[in-house]
Amino acid sequence: MxxxxxxxxxxxxLLANPDRFGGKAEGDLQRxxxxxxxxxxxxxxxxxxxxxQVTNGAGRILxxxxxEPHLHLDKAFTLPRMGAVGGDLMAAIAxxxxxxxxxxxxxxxxxxxxxxxxxxxxGVSHARSHVDWGRGDDPHATPRAWDVLAEVAQEWAxxxxxxxxxxxxxxxxxxxxxxARIAADVxxxxxxxxxxxxxxxxxxxxxxxxxxxxxxxGLALDFHVDEGQESSLDGLALIAAEALRTGFQGPxxxxxxxxxxxxxxxxxxxxxxxxxxxxxxxxALPTTNLYLQSRQGGTPDRRGITRLAEAAAxxxxxxxxxxxxxxxxxxxxxxxxxLTLATAIPALHLDxxxxxxxxxxxxxxxxxxxxxxxxxxxxxxxxxxxxxxTDLASLITSQPPRRPLLA
Length: 407
Ligand SMILES: [Zn+2]
What we know:
This protein is an alpha/beta fold. The chain folds into 2 domains: 3-64 and 375-404, Urease, subunit C, domain 1; 66-368, Metal-dependent hydrolases (TIM Barrel, Alpha-Beta Barrel). The chain has 13 helices and 16 strands. The chain has helices at residues 18-21, 89-99, 105-121, 144-156, 176-188, 203-217, 235-246, 265-278, 286-292, 308-313, 337-348, 363-368, 392-398, and strands at residues 3-11, 24-26, 29-37, 40-44, 53-56, 60-63, 66-71, 124-132, 161-167, 193-197, 221-225, 252-256, 280-284, 318-320, 385-388, 402-404. The strands form 4 sheets. Strands 1, 2, 3, 4 and 5 form a 5-stranded mixed beta sheet that branches. Strands 10-11-12-13-14 form a 5-stranded parallel beta sheet. Strand 12, helix 8 and strand 13 (280-284) form a beta-alpha-beta unit. Helix 3 (105-121) runs parallel beside helix 4, helix 7 crosses helix 8 (265-278) and helix 11 (337-348) packs across helix 13 (392-398). The longest helix is centred in the first third of the chain and has 17 residues, at 105-121. It is globular, with a radius of gyration of 22 Å. The model has no long low-confidence stretch (mean pLDDT 96). It binds zinc ion (ZN). Residues 70, 72, 130, 224, 255, 323 line the site of zinc ion.
């Protein structure tokens, strides 16, 4: 039976063809009576078919699924047992390293399960978690968390699609045997090949090997790169150069890129143009970067966040990630991209109309991960969801519960 949901709103920027979808404009929303036939969303209609089942959608906004490109489920929710933590990125890495002694299978499962329940409640269809590499004293060994989280991902299939990205230091890839073993582990679970690079001495060889292995195994690449304010950091530029040299077909995502703030003028324009040409997507991670960067003592006077606006203007696909939640890297948070967007709005000066920015946590994030587009008018009805909010400022501020359109 056809369904008619009266007086519902859709963010216009999330429609591929707003004119064809119908309804009337209301700020950056489009409002009308929504017709749904089976699993197909027809659009707003003024002439509903006879016998349609009618409900009232007033006070609700129709949304596509959200996509979360950058998490750390191995670390999430470890803060309560850590005692006093604080300091910069290296202090957080040290504190988290000490906590790893407690990462039993059960502990990992419990914490990751809590995170996935939050992602499901937030309407996230796809999420990617990085996983710290190494086991015991061996920084190159496959961590137990890799296999435990792969099992958790299988258990959650059909509710939230969770994929994993390995996170060794980039220097690990400079050793061919280690690199081949890590790539095989990644391929085995359908993950993406990642590493972190912060001025590491063997970064050039490491990136070359990572691109080569990703091409041979058909893997996505996802780097934590230049998560610091030193102007000497060149990881992002090396990745762009390697992507262009090899003609890598992607998907290729770079997170953090904090040191991009040091580049200006021609230098910045050239690098962003190379990134756009190379098909590199850029992920800003406002919570962790605001918390850990600019720790020179006293109140921070730099935001420690990448140049998202300039990258978007240069044609780079840009997105937002939630990163750390209640661990040594960020002590607050919830696995909800709307909360991340709420933090990014003041941090990155994302001005109204807010409909312009929703793609950062839906369609753009999907593209960065190699997934298909997420326009409301091109998705089947079972993938859409409703949130109780009258406008986008209240949606982003209150992050209300989301439920499936067809529930
Ligand atoms: Zn991260």
